[in-house]
Write a structure and sequence with these properties.
Elements lengths: L3 E10 L9 E7 L5 E8 L3 H20 L4 H11 L11 E9 L3 E7 L5 E4 L2 E2 L5 E5 L2 E9 L5 E5 L18 H12 L5 H15 L8 E10 L2 E6 L8 H10 L3 E5 L1 H11 L3 E3 L13 E3 L4 E3 L2 H15 L5 H5 L4 H12 L2 E6 L16 H17 L3 E6 L1
Parallel strand pairs: 12-13, 12-17, 13-16, 17-18
Antiparallel strand pairs: 1-11, 2-3, 3-4, 4-5, 5-9, 6-7, 6-10, 8-9, 10-11, 14-15
Length: about 400
């Protein structure tokens, strides 16, 4: 393992008139710290294509994660996939990006558009070796990762996107590469980059896609640790121990909750001040300021909003502009956790807040614990490395 981290995002839109997408993306983390990303495109569209692509991505990602060879993966797929009722073949194209301990990317590509590599803000060529397995021509590449590298994998619904049945010759792989290269320089996350590409394809299809469209982006970056303290410890005698561990961690520090912030202020021997310019925004309480802490917010209400944004981020990311441009506590936490952090340490206090025992308030200890559990799960799905410590 090195100081590099990978940010992975993907997004799909369905063929017009279909309820299911014929493309599927799977991401599997292995015990040795590697990550296997598989984008599969099932033959045709709709239910059968969805079954083909889902089975293909599940089989490949699971077998690759267990250290099996690509030859074994392809042989297993050929023997396992059901036959397409119309074409009489079990057929799904696939792209594999095997990120080996964040040192190397192994690309394995079969019949999908070639993966685009953007390095130093430009499309970059990479070597490919041709393999023949089970009658299929497969291309393999090994690329040493560098900070700032962006890999763009896609289904064939992306290139030549058009509003009619003719190819759009002004939207080829090279044009997509230039579009993504320009966007990559801005510093967007992988999720935002793939959302921009899919949205652009949707526009070219006049919002009536003639094929399933999927984009998957892998962005290589330096590790950025982040620490979030949420709630006081169950035993007051643990206050100093909790604060000592929290402030000893490298990276930025976020504190959520008024009582917790008061304990931190006492530990740091610094005044806790409400931000005079802050007001309640979209139901999110105002923030405070404490020297030595990067962000101080209210607790459960603010974190509930963060969880809501995190769940949306993993779906269609329609709330992106709201939290990305927002200045309230929940938006600021989202900006730090979703876009900046790669490794997140949660310090969670188990103390019962007397104010939350009011039966008229929709807040309880269990809700607080569930917020932490669900938010941690969402962040892990974003590719973050999460550690939760309870006090």
């Amino acid at each position: 393992m090195n100081d590099l981290s990978v940010d992975i995002g993907y997004r799909s839109i369905n063929h017009a008139g279909e309820e299911l997408c014929g493309d599927h993306v799977d991401v599997v983390n292995t015990e040795d710290g590697s990550t296997v990303v598989v984008l599969a495109d099932g033959l045709g569209s709709g239910v059968q294509a969805s079954i083909l692509s889902t089975l293909t991505s599940k089989i490949i990602s699971t077998m690759m994660a267990e250290g099996m060879s690509i030859e074994e993966c392809v042989s297993t797929i050929a023997a396992t996939l059901p036959l397409h009722s119309v074409h009489g073949v079990a057929y799904s194209t696939f792209t594999i990006i095997n990120l080996v301990r964040n040192h190397t990317a192994e690309l394995i590509q079969y019949d999908n558009p070639e993966v685009i590599l953007i390095r130093d803000g430009d499309m970059t060529d990479y070597p490919m070796t041709e393999l023949h397995i089970e009658g299929k021509t497969i291309y393999r590449s090994t690329i040493r990762l560098q900070e700032g590298d962006v890999f763009v994998a896609m289904s064939d619904g992306c290139p030549h996107a058009s509003a009619d049945n003719t190819y759009n010759n002004d939207w080829k792989r090279e044009d997509i590469g230039q579009f993504m290269a320009d966007m990559s320089l801005v510093g967007y996350t992988a999720k935002v980059l793939c959302t921009m590409l899919v949205d652009e394809c949707d526009k070219l299809y006049a919002h009536h896609p003639l094929d399933d469209v999927t984009a998957c982006v892998v962005k290589v970056r330096q590790r950025v640790p982040m620490n979030l303290l949420f709630g006081p410890p169950a035993d007051r005698d643990d206050n100093d121990r909790m604060m000592s561990l929290f402030f000893s961690k490298e990276g930025k520090h976020i504190i959520c909750g008024g009582t917790t912030a008061t304990i931190a202020a006492k530990y740091l021997r610094k005044p806790l001040r409400p931000m005079s310019s802050q007001v309640m925004v979209a139901g999110v309480p105002p923030m405070s300021e404490l020297e030595g802490v990067d962000l101080v917010t209210e607790g459960v209400v603010t974190m509930s909003k963060v969880l809501e944004y995190a769940q949306n981020y993993l779906e269609d990311n329609e709330s992106y502009e709201q939290w990305n441009y927002g200045h309230d506590g929940a938006s600021r936490i989202c900006q730090l956790l979703f876009e900046e952090a790669t490794d997140i340490n949660f310090f969670v206090g188990r103390a019962m807040n007397p104010a939350h025992q009011n039966p008229d308030l929709p807040i309880s200890f269990n809700i607080k614990m569930n917020i932490v559990k669900e938010l941690a799960a969402c962040l892990e799905k974003m590719g973050k490395h999460i550690r939760v410590s309870y006090f």
